[in-house]
Amino acid sequence: MEVLSNSPEASSFVPLAEHQSRTPSSFYSGPPVLYHHSQRCKIVILERELLANLALNALRGDNAVNSATSEGQPDDEKEVAIADVDTWVTSEKFHLFSPSTSKGVSIPYPSISLHALQRLRVPGTDAEVQGLYMQVATPSAPTEDDEEEECVAFTVVLPGDATAQDSETEETPTQQLYGAVSACSYLHPDPVEDDSDDEDGTKFITAEEHEGVFQLGGNGDLPPPVDGSSGWITAENMDQFFDKDGNWIAGGEPPSFPLGPGAGTVRAREEEDGEDETKWRKTD
């Protein structure tokens, strides 16, 4: 997460409708596209997770309401609702900003490990509303492969869904927010891990390794290329390497790898016993 001291400006983005109405001059430059913008949202988060994340805790200010705790429940297990937070979903990053505290956070989409629709009760209210639940990875240091990745979880509740009920004919504002985050996440896929060994020990060969291993003359165990063969044994030039019985006739040492039964054998049409000649004729 990146801490913001200034609120995002609408003029810094291209509205989605405008972006979709014309062909951009470049797909790799220009201002980010604004997919969704909502003001006066609420962020619902556990007290302990809020205290552990300084960037999100800066949003709190005086606009926070704590949920009531049950007897015997630790204070850090109660939920906190931070009000008056603006939400910006852009093609570049996901932004949360509190105008009252002049603080915000900018979240890269690859850091959003999970987002989903959720039904919940906001602290300080009795109504059940719909919100966008999010898990954001917050790695503090490199971890072992078997260790669970550190993350912070919170829910964004839009003012338009304060009393919204599920609708079969129209998307709620939160469903629109979910769609916007999903669309922007697709624009930022996870980086491909550089792992050349599969779990079963199979090694994937790069293009450069392919040249050295399989092309004739690229490996000391393989025979040199024959003129005009482009360095490969193919169906067209096989007679330059093997006779009709599969014996090696090209210069140099024969290949050391097994070629399999019948490799290099050329069969004439008359040797194909039992073949019906009519099968070779063109049919309509």
From TrEMBL:
GO biological process: mRNA cis splicing, via spliceosome; spliceosomal snRNP assembly
Cellular location(s): Cytoplasm; Nucleus
Signal peptide: none
Keyword Membrane applies: no
Protein origin, superkingdom: Eukaryota
Keywords annotated in UniProt: Cytoplasm, Nucleus
UniProt region (Disordered), positions on chain: 1-23, 245-284
Biased composition (Polar residues): 1-10
Nucleus as UniProt keyword: yes
Cross-referenced InterPro entries: ICln/Lot5/Saf5 (IPR039924), PH-like_dom_sf (IPR011993)
Cellular component terms (Gene Ontology): cytosol; pICln-Sm protein complex; spliceosomal complex
Protein name: Regulator of volume decrease after cellular swelling-domain-containing protein
